[in-house]
Write a structure and sequence with these properties.
The structure is a single chain. With about 325 residues, the protein is an alpha+beta fold. It has two domains: about 60 residues; about 250 residues, Outer membrane phospholipase (ompla), Chain C. The chain is about 20% helix and about 40% strand. The protein contains five helices and 13 strands. α2 runs antiparallel to α3. The two termini are about 45 Å apart.
């Protein structure tokens, strides 16, 4: 049986690496380190079989195995983000087929919206979010680990159970952004400190009285391990002469705090916004758990203002259950 050129290269790469001095020869290396090293070799050989890269692959895997407290998500994203067949997730990706609100907000919808039947909107609807990011450079900007990204998040609220008015999408928010992310040289803790600086636009794509949008610059700092993440992102809203929602900061606040903690296979998450002057804000809590494959069960609870742009000044409660494809950690 003849081997293809690629298969021969992979086999040669594996034999060459096995012939190199093993990481396991170091008495200080633990079994976990050896497992991390072996897994790293397999991933990197699969992605790059050029012979002149063997030594750099081995060195990179030794570094990863000896510092395997670096969050697994960060490591895997770096290895696949330039793959044209992989879409890198950014925020959570989920669908909640069943959600229950305390009361749907009908105030923004005038008589000509939904055929004059806005009062028939139900407190039950489907909520889902799609979020991804893509690198804009092939290599680091100022160091080997930093990156410039384009990110996009879509969040939608679908009145799927309101057949009387043709089951409309009540609200959809579009959130494109451009940001720079880099690790920070802080050695406190076993994880990684990082920072993001960027520009973000958010709108609901509507016109006239239903239009809601804002632009902001932000700069955040965070800390991440495999089972823990905390990220604080203050922002500055860019003034807008044609402002559809001039008081949005009164309800959405001046920052967003994201936290996640994984206990065994269950992940708990929270996102909070708050304005200390007005006392208004919103909080989203979530819990995900394994179901099958990469699909996880997901329960989400929201309380406060700003769950969507059309509801930025509306105080609401919602609980929903569904499935989640990508989590925070």
């Amino acid at each position: 049986m003849k081997l293809s050129v690629q298969h021969s290269a992979v086999l040669g790469a594996m034999l060459s690496l096995l012939a190199m001095p093993s990481l396991a020869n170091n008495d200080a290396v633990t079994a976990d380190d050896e497992t991390t090293f072996d897994n790293c070799l397999l991933r990197k050989i699969h992605m790059d079989v050029e012979q002149d890269n063997l030594q750099s692959i081995k060195q990179a895997c030794q570094t990863e195995s000896l510092h395997h407290s670096v969050p697994n998500r960060h490591t895997l994203e770096k290895e696949t983000e330039n793959n044209p067949f992989v879409i890198t997730p950014y925020r959570q990706n989920y669908i909640l087929p069943v959600t229950q609100m305390s009361q749907v907000n009908t105030a923004p919808y005038t008589a000509d919206i939904f055929g004059g039947k806005a009062d028939e909107l139900k407190d039950q609807e489907i909520k889902f979010q799609i979020s991804f990011k893509m690198p804009l450079t092939k290599q680091g900007v100022f160091n080997e680990e930093d990156q410039l990204y384009f990110g996009f998040t879509l969040k939608s609220f679908w009145q799927a159970y309101t057949s009387e008015i043709s089951a409309p999408f009540r609200e959809t928010n579009y959130r494109p952004e451009l940001f720079y992310e880099t690790p920070l040289p802080i050695e406190y803790g076993d994880g990684v400190w990082f920072s993001r600086v960027g520009f973000e636009h958010e709108s609901n794509g509507r016109t006239q009285e239903l239009s809601r949008s804002w632009n902001r610059f932000y700069g955040g700092i965070g800390y991440a391990e495999d089972d823990l993440l905390v990220y604080l992102e203050p922002w500055y809203r860019i003034p807008d002469n044609d402002d559809d929602n001039p008081d949005i900061e009164d309800y959405m606040g001046h920052f967003e705090l994201t936290a996640a903690y994984k206990y065994q296979a269950v992940e708990f998450s929270g996102v909070a916004r708050y304005n200390f002057q007005t006392g208004y804000g919103g909080f989203e809590a979530g819990m995900s758990f394994p179901m099958w494959g990469r699909v996880r069960g997901y329960v989400q609870y929201y309380k406060g203002y700003g769950e969507s742009l059309i509801d930025y000044d509306y105080n609401n409660k919602r609980i929903g259950i569904g499935v989640l494809l990508t989590d925070i950690l």
